[in-house]
Amino acid sequence: MRRGGANMDHIQGRDLAGKVALIAGGGGIGAAVARRLAAEGCRVVLGDKDGDGAERDAGAIRADGGECMAVAYDQSDEASVAALVQKTVDGVGAPDFAFVNAMDMAAVEYDTDLLDIDMGVFDQTLAVGLRGSVLVARAVMPYLAARRGAIVFTSSDAAHFGEPCRFAYAMTKSAVNALMRHIASRWGPQGVRANAILPGIVMIPRMAEKMDEAIQSRLVAGSRSTRLGRGEDIAAMVAMLFSKDGEWVNGQTISVNGGGTMRP
Q: Most buried pick, 88, 91, 166, 183, via CB within 10 A?
């Protein structure tokens, strides 16, 4: 039915089938994004430092009928990042999409304040989260520009908060937002879209194991939602941004957090 003269014939759905998606950084959110994109017909490459873990997630996707290849890589190492992208091209095809998600969360656990932080922790946080994001973006950009593709970064609301701790993590995410806007500005006229998702508290398996139900209940009670986040919530936004539905969204930081940035 047409209402008000609107022509709905142009709506084509996600249109992701057959596209190649590179996910740099597996684990909880990365694995959820891999599952969603594979379910929508993408040919997925799941890269992670934990190659065995990436292969388990990729194997589960293949068992469900999706196409997913696992690659072990180190995001802090330029040669390793280049190899990840080359293995994607050789094994699956030139990437249409890239989801840049990796962060050394072990280092983040020791991210304190300006005076107390060990500079090795600071350097490692930026090496993976910031410099590594630059390395991935540099390696995939020629393919994205040629294919009018899209790149999405995992950022964080920490980039906007002034927390008394985790300042290296917050610095990294602020810088990732700037990197994303640079890409959107520089390559947007060539058809490339770049955006960043800022997740709230997402109960990936590693976090769920460490956080008891009482703490989870208190977090929900203090939020503006009925539950905490799931990896699937972030995956849904990534799928939209990669699809035709998101082709006029560029240069944006998008909070997916159940209203977590609103304060009482």
A: 88
Residue type, 177: N
Which residue, chain included where needed, has tokens 């159940």?
A: 258
Which pLDDT score is estimated for 133?
Answer: 98
Closest CA to 104 of 86, 77, 83: 77
First vs last C-alpha separation in the chain: 43
User: Does residue 4 have a pLDDT over 50?
Assistant: no
pLDDT at 106: 82
Q: Of the residues 73, 110, 143, 169, which is catalytic?
A: 169
> Which one is predicted more confidently, 225 or 38?
38
* Residue 212 scores a pLDDT above 80: no
- 73 as an active site residue: the answer is no
Q: Of 49, 143, 65, 47, whose CA–CA distance to 97 is shortest?
A: 143
Which is nearest to 150 in space by CA: 50, 250, 63?
A: 250
